[in-house]
Design a protein that fits this description.
Length: about 90
């Protein structure tokens, strides 16, 4: 079981991304967000009944500063033809 410190650090390096296209892939998200720092993981929340993304997901960065930069730099930017809304 991870320590409380590890859980805290993991959450501070996460960004929430909404407004994603249903055709977005985790690979495309990693490519777009890696402009701001090393991306550890991108997770799209999937609609299992339709087998497609629900339009939002999470990006985990190696460093908190990269997550903050991504929030500023990607918020409102077009990705796959849709404006992305990013929160840290």
């Amino acid at each position: 079981m991870p320590s409380l410190h590890a859980i805290s650090v993991a959450w501070t390096n996460n960004s929430f991304a909404a407004g994603l296209s249903f055709s977005s892939t985790e690979k495309k998200i990693v490519e777009a967000f890696s402009e701001f720092g090393k991306v550890i993981e991108a997770k799209l929340v999937m609609d299992k009944a339709r087998n497609r993304p629900k339009g939002y997901g999470f990006v985990t960065f190696a460093e908190k500063e990269a997550a903050e930069k991504a929030c500023e730099g990607m918020n409102g930017k077009l990705l796959d033809g849709r404006a992305v809304y990013v929160r840290f």
